[in-house]
């Protein structure tokens, strides 16, 4: 947010902020393999819907090409930083470990904040960065989770196997929200996104949003892979909440792959998502077909017990199950522990205290400002950061550790190759995307397809010239 | 695995029953965090109209 500016200036501000990123990076992005209108169900949309309110801001304006508008930066850790529909967006490098991902997510806050500080110095106006999902005026913007999934699982199995987890995950990973920008609700709800979900499944992202997004943009060989594009989750401030949010989805995907997903016939998924979000009894009942009901706890447990029976669990998946069970137990018996690890509970606690001390009501128009401030990523200002400083929530990684996450990656993913391309061979780098790297070497450009499932060896970092680097990349299978 | 393998209940709550009495949990005890000085200091600095001024475009 730029002091004194509104939604009309948002696109220009986001472009300028991204372009202010002060550290080493590659400029540009290769958009050729992007396909936001392709649908997992086997068809292609003519166009994606736009929010009619947003359309008014841009009436009559002609934007330049995508590269100009998006202002992409590829960082030395393989992350992408760009303007996405009027806000700065940080996409972490690909990770295999959920804890590495949570650290990269935290490091992204520093990257965006560094760009904001540089932008602020240029324009001499205050710039604040809020990592949240609603502006309290009816606009929402998602936290995108991307999961590499074998295409042969197919839409039907994915939808049936993942939807129940998508509904209940907010109990442990919601960021919390005062009131509702979409309707008459004066309480506190778990999810920032719930009120913006209008259909169980579709490919839209800007308007008429679904719980299960069917965008088919694999960022990899499309005959083998698809990317599950999850947009119904919230932006977490607590790093362990980020790890758990992603880990829960990993468990559900593993069961899909094994053909052992629990089957829940939820009567009205959109209504169920919103009912869980607004259930201030924390009972979290879910209405099923056939005039019966269950609870979020039982849905969680059906995934955990099936995973224990059918999936080979690594240490991280074991942590997801054990810590989730522990938290679900503590929700009603030890809320002080629950709120240390769950954003909505941490936020609700400080807002409840404020409401009480100020003799306010939950529909007080000032409260959303305090909700918003929980998400201010400036460690000197944000309310979440205050809780970290006071030892009231799970800690963030040390700043020095996070800065190292902006310089490179620890895992042998394809992001390691992208990271080296930016940090070692930038003068030769013609284009970068999630799927490909292309280099200006010799008479015609050389393009390398990056296998998303391969292990990229540490020897890549020892290549002394770009030709050797390319030769080594070509040998990775 | 099917719906029948797991516990489900009739949709309608029995009349007269309160939360937690039919197997569901009750309302949790929410206590304040300790040592709220830094939090209080920051909350006092929050512009109570900040959310009114904060506008975003719809994103993905």
Can you tag this structure with a few keywords?
heterodimer, A: 477 residues, alpha+beta, 2 domains, four-stranded antiparallel sheet, three-stranded antiparallel sheet, globular, B: 60 residues, mainly alpha, 2 helices, elongated, disordered N terminus
Structure in words:
The complex is a heterodimer of chains A (477) and B (60). Chain A has 477 residues and is α+β, with helices and mostly antiparallel strands. Chain A has two domains: 30-71 and 130-375, no CATH class; 412-474, no CATH class. Chain A is built from 17 helices and 17 strands. Chain A has helices spanning 10-19, 52-57, 66-70, 98-123, 154-168, 170-173, 239-258, 269-278, 296-310, 315-333, 335-341, 343-357, 367-374, 383-389, 399-407, 414-424, 466-474; strands spanning 26-27, 38-39, 43-44, 73-74, 80-84, 87-91, 145-150, 177-178, 188-189, 197-202, 209-213, 225-230, 285-288, 292-295, 429-432, 436-439, 446-449. In chain A, strands 1-4-5-6 form a four-stranded antiparallel beta sheet, covered by helices on one side. In chain A, strands 15-16-17 form a three-stranded antiparallel beta sheet, with helices on one face. A two-stranded antiparallel sheet of chain A has the order 2-3. Chain A is globular. The model of chain A has no long low-confidence stretch (mean pLDDT 95). Chain B has helices at residues 37-45, 50-53; one strand spanning 9-10. In chain B, 22% of the residues lie in helices and 3% in strands. The model of chain B is unreliable at 1-7 and 10-27 (pLDDT under 50). Chain B is built from two helices and one strand. Chain B is mostly helical and 60 residues long. At the A-B interface, α2, β13, β14, α9 and α10 of A face β1, α1 and α2 of B.
């Amino acid at each position: 947010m730029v002091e004194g500016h509104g939604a009309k200036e948002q696109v220009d501000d986001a472009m300028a902020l991204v372009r202010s990123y002060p550290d080493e990076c590659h400029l540009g992005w290769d958009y050729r393999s992007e396909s936001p209108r392709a649908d997992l169900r086997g068809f292609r949309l003519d166009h994606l819907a736009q929010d009619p309110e947003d359309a008014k801001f841009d009436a009559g304006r002609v934007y330049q090409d995508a590269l100009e508008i998006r202002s992409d930066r590829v960082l030395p850790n393989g992350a992408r930083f760009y303007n996405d529909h009027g806000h700065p967006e940080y996409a972490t490098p690909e990770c295999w470990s959920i804890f590495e991902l949570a650290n990269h997510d935290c490091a992204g806050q520093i990257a965006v904040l560094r760009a904001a500080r540089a932008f602020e110095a240029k324009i001499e106006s205050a710039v604040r960065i809020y990592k949240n999902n609603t502006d309290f005026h009816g606009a929402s913007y998602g936290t995108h989770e991307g999961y590499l999934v074998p295409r042969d699982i197919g839409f039907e199995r994915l939808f049936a196997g993942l939807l129940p987890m998508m509904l209940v995950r907010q109990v442990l990973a919601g960021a919390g929200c005062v009131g509702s920008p979409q309707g008459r609700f004066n309480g506190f709800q778990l999810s920032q996104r719930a009120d913006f979900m209008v259909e169980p499944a579709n490919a839209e992202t800007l308007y008429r949003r679904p719980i299960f997004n069917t965008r088919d943009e694999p960022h990899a060989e499309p005959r083998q892979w698809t990317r599950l594009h999850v947009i119904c989750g919230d932006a977490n401030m607590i790093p362990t909440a980020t790890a758990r949010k992603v880990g829960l989805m990993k468990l559900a995907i593993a069961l899909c792959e094994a053909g052992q997903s629990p089957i829940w016939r939820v009567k009205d998924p959109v209504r169920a998502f919103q009912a869980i979000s607004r259930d201030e009894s924390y009972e979290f009942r879910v209405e099923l077909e056939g005039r019966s009901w269950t609870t979020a706890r039982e849905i969680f447990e059906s995934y955990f017990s099936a995973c224990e029976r059918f999936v080979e669990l690594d240490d991280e998946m074991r942590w997801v199950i054990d810590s989730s069970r522990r938290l679900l137990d503590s929700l009603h018996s030890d809320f002080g522990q629950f709120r240390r690890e769950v954003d909505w509970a941490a936020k609700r606690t400080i807002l409840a205290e404020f409401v009480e001390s100020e003799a306010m009501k939950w529909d007080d128009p000032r409260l959303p400002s305090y909700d918003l401030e929980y998400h201010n990523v400036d460690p000197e200002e944000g309310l979440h950061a205050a809780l970290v400083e006071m030892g009231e929530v799970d800690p963030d990684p040390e700043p020095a550790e996070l800065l190292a996450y902006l310089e490179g990656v620890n895992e042998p993913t394809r992001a390691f190759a992208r990271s080296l391309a930016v940090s070692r061979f930038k003068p030769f780098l013609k284009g970068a995307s999630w799927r490909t790297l292309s280099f200006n070497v010799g008479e015609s450009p050389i393009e390398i397809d990056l296998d998303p499932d391969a292990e990229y060896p540490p020897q890549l970092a020892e290549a002394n010239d770009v030709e050797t680097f390319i030769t080594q990349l070509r040998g990775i299978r | 695995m099917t719906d029948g393998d797991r516990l489900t209940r009739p949709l309608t709550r029995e009349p007269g029953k309160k939360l937690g009495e039919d197997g569901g949990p009750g309302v949790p005890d929410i206590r304040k965090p300790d040592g709220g000085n830094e939090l209080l200091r920051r909350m006092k600095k929050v512009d109570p109209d900040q959310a009114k001024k904060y506008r975003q475009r719809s994103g993905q």
